[in-house]
Design a protein that fits this description.
127 residues, Ribosomal Protein L22, Chain A, two-stranded antiparallel sheet, 31% strand, Ppantetheine-prot_Trfase_dom, lipid biosynthesis
Amino acid sequence: MILGVGVDLVTVSRMERILRSRWAEKFVTRVFSPEEIRACREAATPAQSYAVRFAAKEALAKALGTGFTKGVSPGTVFVRGGERNRPEIVLAAQALAVAENMNVAAIHVSLSHTSEIACAFVVVESR
């Protein structure tokens, strides 16, 4: 059964501004895992890669209905390439506990981006 749906858009120019700011390193290390940082830095367009991952984190928070509260934060939600290079969301710490408490059985994510916009769509299923 579908528990929730979330979608989020992030402008790539906004992410570029953040990445050029004096707070860039603090933002990146607080919001993204070392694996995500490595993948984004190795990407042809790092700002697009960061933006689409951040959009996925926001979309998941919306799909769970928690927003970034109750233990769900960008630093507890990770986006990585899964089987057949399909993106997948991995939860850690309190976000995992929240999902288990909500009987989450599966998280589906679709990502897309252009040079201007990053988009993420998330569907959360319950057991």
